[in-house]
């Protein structure tokens, strides 16, 4: 039943996140909020809302290791899976406007996060610093987007938004149901995951790095694979960079306001550096503005498989 509960929680989170994005975007459009602002706020929050709710719920239920594991594991999966799998279908271009700048920001945020983690925990002061960095990033992105006329409408990257609610009442209902669903799904997932961790005699952090991280990265993976099949695989890299920045700054930033998030020795010695290695793996493609092809995709998947195997071995 623990596995059923955890899987049910994941399903509810994914569905609720989608409903929240549709409702929120519809409301924002009806109040004439620009697509750029919608992309930087509602869509950024909505697509990462499952991880955020899991982080908050984990901290409140004395399973803070699950919150850290989920974020670190999601960032690793975002690069090695969400980019690696579509690369097997079609080459992924890395020459989009401002991609190099956003990659540099992601790399800098990752390094700052790792240095902060070396203190052994994330408390509210660290959380405030991360949220201040997030606010700076959003303001900078908004300013740059206004200055660049070639800016892409972020709404065009979200598949299925043409089915958004067609009235304020319906959009409000979608938004409220999405928020309620996220809270309910997060509670199911955290409760089930903690029980599984105790049953298998492993830490909540390991469950967060594996099962929960992969589960909460599924929407991004499905979107990237669908885009690759439709010949738009270049969307994947930009989405991954944005998601990784938001995960580190927003999810840990907000979650740490609800309680202390400890950083285990394993995380400091292995997991955080694997996350950094996955970021560095993208550097040659971004710098040379070349494509991530099938060979590179296979290497990414091999690296992710090796990492999961290491986690399994270290848990025995």
UniProtKB/TrEMBL annotation:
InterPro entries cross-referenced by the UniProt entry: K/Na/Ca-exchanger, NaCa_Exmemb, NCX_ion-bd_dom_sf
Instruction: Give residue ranges for domain Sodium/calcium exchanger membrane region.
Output: 5-141, 173-310
Superkingdom as given in the UniProt entry: Bacteria
Q: Which UniProt keywords apply?
A: Membrane, Transmembrane, Transmembrane helix
Q: Name one GO biological process term.
A: intracellular calcium ion homeostasis
**Compartment(s) where it occurs, according to its Swiss-Prot or TrEMBL record:** Membrane
Q: Does the keyword Repeat apply?
A: no
The membrane topology noted for this protein in its Swiss-Prot or TrEMBL record is: Multi-pass membrane protein
Signal peptide (residue range):
none
Q: Which GO terms describe its molecular function?
A: calcium channel activity; calcium, potassium:sodium antiporter activity
Major localization listed first in the record, in broad terms: membrane
Q: Which residues cross the membrane?
A: 6-25, 37-56, 76-94, 101-118, 124-142, 173-194, 206-229, 236-258, 270-288, 295-312
Cellular component, GO annotation: plasma membrane
NCBIfam families, A to Z: calcium/sodium antiporter (TIGR00367)
Protein name, per record: Calcium/sodium antiporter
Recorded source organism is Temperatibacter marinus
